[in-house]
């Protein structure tokens, strides 16, 4: 019993750790796509954020400066995406693909030029990273069975960026559904000409949406390189941006369901490491690759409309051309 | 804004704008190289020599170009129907799987000239099948093909790891690779073929598939511009509703286009698996599917443009490898960055320079007119 609890808790804690960058990137995707701008470049922004954060932390030793630099970098990428797709009405998917490829090349080029370590950044000391923080009351609750363990291992003991990720879900929900800005943002993703008719700038709204996405992916990238790990490794985002994209669709472009989709995908990732080479009764050995492919398969099934319908914002992917 | 804009002359549209876009991408790349502390012009010289300077280099350049012609055509034909096939990567991977399965099964029994058409067919069928599900979902269930093809890239990657580790691996080996095919299942290398007629050239991975790629390009050109199916594809791409009113079944056209697109991407397996590697192995696609997007955008979705763009990207790949030897500060990932910049400038920002050019040409036009009047 004790053992089951320990395994369950550590798997769930691992799930939270793996889900954090997914949640941040998924929220970024929601802002962008709800305003009508497809964002394939979540992957590239996570990677750019991770690289800049690790580089800054290695040079300055300050995790907070690293976070700020990473956010600045990802916001510039968002500006680039906006410049190409909002100002110049370029194809949003093409722009996203371009950003992903540029970042995956440039992070290695700059990494080698700056640090001469085959594209890796120097390993960081603990004070240059975001370390786990212990919440107050762990000692106090430790005597209570189950609840004490749950509090100590699941709720407490993460780094601050994990809590930021959770906060981002509720902030996203609040902004999108409880503020005037959010209402307009959703409207511009459904029917931009109506918003334009009301005298509100479509371009300015969309720019703000993609820039918020830049902030969130910057935090996510920082988490990957200097909280979850202690240095940057080439291509370390490893498709998490695409999984976040899948989670966003799986959550039907809504913050809270998208968060749960991130948990589901994160959980699959956490158990796939655990299940490596384990024989399950009746089923036999589950191929790790199958578990790893599950998020993608589930998303396709959902998109196919076999498990509820995922309906994208109506004006998504269409550059807005003002009528003259 | 009442002044009517004159459309650009054709040559400016198909030659000048692509060149301006490449120059902008190369300028940004040059600035990056300068910031790293190397001389961008020197780097350019090394790359051009490394890509075209001697016959082995040309062989490598054209070998890379072969892959890009296949993936570029795949992306281009989908673009003609206004579909964005990001799944070239996965389709090429699975196409290679088809080639490997066929050759592993039959290389002991059949001669080369029977194996070759069968292998081409296998690469096309497997590639097309991998595109079929996203195509069906787009045509009949309205699922966004960009997302589904991305998902299928990842599914393909996981599937291939599973198959190589558990099925194709040589018993007792630790390396996830299949056995090497028998000699009769190898495509002849270009240096071998030149050797048959008595011409000596240095050995390179360039093989018969380059010729296949050129033939396929011609066939695709005929198909898109000189058959009614090609016309239907372009009609759907131009306006789905107009095509519908004209009696064209959008769903069937989407299916057909994507199956051809997947088949073309799958043919990358002919070059890589049958031509160069001679066995199935992990990650042999190495981003060629994504490069196909850049190639199609730069080549304006036209086979001639695609062949030229493929050679340019082949030169970037090969020249980039040389660059790393001479300038260790610059890694070969610089080529990846340049590729991304080209996608950005000739894809997403393709129309940035157009208004300027239109003004410029308008200016010239009015000067000419004045001269005529005067």
Write a structural description.
The complex is a heterodimer of chains A (324) and B (374). Chain A has 324 residues and is mostly helical. Chain A has 13 helices and 2 strands; from the N terminus they run H-H-H-H-H-H-H-H-H-H-H-H-E-E-H. Chain A has helices at residues 2-34, 42-60, 63-87, 92-115, 138-141, 147-155, 160-178, 180-190, 192-197, 202-228, 240-250, 255-274, 288-303; strands at residues 279-280, 284-285. Chain B is built from 16 helices and no strands. Chain B has one domain (23-350): ABC transporter involved in vitamin B12 uptake, BtuC (Orthogonal Bundle), CATH 1.10.3470. Chain B has helices at 10-36, 40-52, 55-80, 88-106, 112-141, 145-168, 190-196, 209-226, 228-238, 240-245, 250-266, 268-277, 288-298, 303-326, 333-348, 354-373. Chain B is 75% helix and 0% strand. Chain B is globular. At the A-B interface, helix 3, helix 4, helix 11 and helix 13 of A face helix 5, helix 6, helix 13 and helix 15 of B.
Structural descriptors:
heterodimer, A: 324 residues, mainly alpha, B: 374 residues, ABC transporter involved in vitamin B12 uptake, BtuC, 16 helices, globular
What is the mean pLDDT of chain B? Answer: 91
Radius of gyration of chain A: 20 Å
- What structural class do you assign from the helix and strand content of chain B? mainly alpha
CATH topological fold name of chain B: ABC transporter involved in vitamin B12 uptake, BtuC
Tally of DSSP β-strands of chain B: 0
C-alpha geometry of chain A: globular
**Which chains share the greatest interface?**
A-B, 50 and 49 residues
H and E string of chain B: HHHHHHHHHHHHHHHH
The CA-CA distance between the termini of chain B, in Å, is: 27 Å
């Amino acid at each position: 019993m004790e053992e089951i609890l320990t395994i369950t808790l550590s798997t769930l804690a691992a799930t939270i750790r793996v889900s954090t960058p997914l949640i941040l990137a998924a929220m970024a995707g929601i802002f962008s796509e709800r305003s009508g701008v497809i964002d394939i470049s979540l992957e590239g922004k996570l990677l750019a954020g991770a690289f800049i954060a690790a580089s800054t932390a290695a040079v300055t030793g300050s995790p907070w400066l690293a976070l700020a630099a990473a956010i600045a970098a990802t916001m510039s990428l968002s500006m680039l995406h906006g410049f190409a797709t909002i100002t110049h009405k370029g194809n949003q998917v093409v722009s996203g693909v371009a950003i992903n490829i540029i970042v995956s090349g440039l992070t290695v080029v700059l990494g080698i030029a700056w640090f001469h370590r085959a594209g890796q950044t120097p390993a960081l000391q603990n004070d240059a990273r975001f370390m786990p923080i212990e919440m107050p009351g762990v000692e106090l609750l430790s005597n209570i069975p189950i609840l004490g363990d749950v509090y100590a291992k699941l709720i407490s003991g993460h780094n601050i960026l994990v809590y930021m990720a959770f906060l981002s879900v509720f902030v996203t929900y609040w902004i999108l559904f409880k503020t005037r800005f959010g209402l307009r943002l959703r409207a511009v993703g459904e029917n931009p000409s109506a918003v334009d008719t009301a005298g509100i700038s479509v371009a300015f709204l969309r720019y703000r949406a993609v820039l918020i996405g830049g902030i969130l992916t910057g935090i996510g990238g920082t988490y990957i390189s200097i909280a979850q790990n202690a240095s940057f490794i080439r291509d370390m985002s490893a498709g998490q941006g695409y999984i976040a994209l899948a989670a966003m669709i799986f959550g039907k472009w809504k913050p809270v369901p998208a968060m749960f989709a991130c948990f589901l995908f994160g959980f699959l990732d956490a158990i796939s490491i655990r299940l490596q080479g384990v024989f399950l009764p009746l089923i036999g050995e589950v191929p790790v690759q199958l578990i790893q492919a599950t998020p993608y398969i589930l998303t396709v099934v959902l998109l196919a409309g076999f498990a509820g319908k995922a309906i994208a914002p109506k004006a998504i992917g269409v550059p807005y051309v003002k009528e003259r | 804004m009442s002044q009517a804009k004159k459309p650009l002359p054709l040559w400016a549209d198909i030659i000048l704008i692509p060149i301006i876009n490449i120059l902008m991408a190369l300028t940004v790349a040059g600035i990056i190289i300068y910031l790293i502390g190397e001389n961008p012009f020197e780097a350019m010289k090394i790359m051009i020599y490394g890509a075209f300077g001697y016959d082995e280099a040309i062989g490598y350049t054209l070998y890379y170009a072969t892959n890009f012609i296949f993936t570029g055509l795949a992306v281009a034909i989908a673009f003609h129907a206004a579909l964005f096939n990001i799944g070239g990567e996965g389709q090429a991977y699975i196409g290679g799987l088809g080639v490997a399965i066929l050759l592993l099964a039959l290389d002991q029994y059949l001669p080369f000239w029977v194996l070759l058409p069968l292998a081409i067919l296998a690469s096309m069928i497997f590639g097309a099948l991998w595109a079929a599900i996203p195509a069906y979902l787009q045509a009949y269930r309205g699922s966004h093909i960009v997302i589904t093809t991305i998902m299928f890239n990842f599914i393909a990657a996981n599937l291939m790891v599973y198959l190589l580790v558990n099925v194709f691996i040589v018993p007792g080996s630790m390396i996830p690779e299949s056995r090497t095919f028998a000699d009769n299942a190898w495509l002849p290398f270009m240096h071998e073929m030149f050797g048959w007629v008595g011409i000596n050239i240095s050995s390179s991975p360039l093989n018969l598939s380059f010729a296949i790629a050129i033939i396929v390009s011609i066939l695709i050109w005929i198909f898109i511009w000189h058959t009614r199916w090609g016309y239907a594809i372009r009609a759907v791409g131009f306006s789905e509703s107009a095509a519908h009113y004209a009696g064209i079944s959008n769903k069937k056209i989407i299916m057909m286009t994507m199956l051809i697109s997947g088949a073309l991407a799958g043919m990358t397996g002919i070059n890589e698996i049958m031509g160069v590697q001679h066995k199935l192995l992990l990650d042999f696609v190495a981003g060629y599917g994504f490069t196909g997007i850049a190639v199609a955008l730069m080549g304006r979705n036209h086979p001639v443009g695609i062949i030229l763009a493929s050679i340019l990207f082949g030169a970037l790949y090969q020249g980039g490898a040389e660059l790393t030897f001479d300038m260790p500060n610059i890694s070969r990932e610089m080529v990846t960055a340049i590729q991304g910049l080209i996608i950005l400038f000739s894809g997403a920002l393709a129309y940035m320079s157009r208004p300027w050019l239109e003004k410029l040409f308008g200016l010239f036009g009015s000067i000419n007119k004045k001269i005529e009047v005067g």
